[in-house]
Design goal:
This protein is an all-alpha fold. Helices cover 75% and strands 0% of the residues. Helix 4 packs antiparallel against helix 5. The longest helix is centred in the last third of the chain and has 37 residues. The chain is extended, with a radius of gyration of 22 Å.
Amino acid sequence: MISFFGFLLFGEGTLDDVLANFDTDLGIPFSAVLNDAVRLSYAAHLMLVFPVVFFPLRLNIDGLLFSKSKPLVMDNFRFASLTISLISVIFLGANFIPSIWDAFQFTGATAAVCIGFIFPAAIILRDRYNIATKGDKILSVFMIVVAVASNAVAIYSDAYALIKQNKTSRE
């Protein structure tokens, strides 16, 4: 919705980062007030959405790392340690990743491959009810190998482009 209304407001002059358009005078009455209102509403949106996204992240990481332990709500030390660790990683990522587009490149290279190829093939390999045939399992292993290889190429090309871009910007 932000992108859609940003395009309606700025037309062909819409920048990649829509919020960057609100750094200038919009040429309308109360332009500064509108700029501040948009920025404050976006900050409020982030503050309200973060806990909704962070809760399942913390719960899933706890389930992966401590699957045999008692529930997270019953262990205050583990809850606090996991929360502080995750927030620290998120804070460091937010401060040291130069551009959101870099993060999107690596997320797209990994998440899309996992969701589209690796997870479905892993489900077939796990096959609790013995529905999958031997051919299905061989195809699943092949699909995982190809997905991991293509994922490695995508991550390598993203990292190479990022390093090359940093070298050219320094020179």
